Amino acid sequence: MDKDIYLTKVKKSDKASLMELREEFERNGERSAPGSSGFLDYPTFEEWFKFVKLCEKQETLPRKDYVPAVQYLLKRRSDGKILGVLQIRSTLNEHLFKFGGHFGGSIRPSERNKNYSTEMIKLGLKKAKRIGLDKILITCRDGNFASEKSILKAGGVYENTMHFNDEDSFKRFWIKT
Fold it and tell me: How far apart are CA 38 and CA 9, in angstroms?
């Protein structure tokens, strides 16, 4: 495992770096960043950060259909650059059990195809184990071969494919922590 990368909970001091990350996703034509707690949908960092903090505990969840989730950033030690985002959900509702899983994640466009996704999953598994998860469900859109490859390299075992609608199908994998 690359010792130059690590996962850390998002902090207010990450604002400038996250805004730069957001701009990169948008320049790349991406309308969402899976695993970012909807970062691209919020008009300001402050609103998004407040939402992220509310989602960390069951008693402060903004909606009844949400589950507790912690927002992490994948960072490189050598330059502090945010390489990706990972949301870890401690429980699953019916929708997440079928289509979302315990992990949601994205690697910034300029850092893709460098094995960071696999390493982020492996680091996330350590965090999941610490919160009592002995196995995690992770999904990817059918046809997202890069994500599927990363999941398999991190130890994912394919279970099945769930069809969300006529256009979207999600492959489901389990990984032991």
Answer: 16
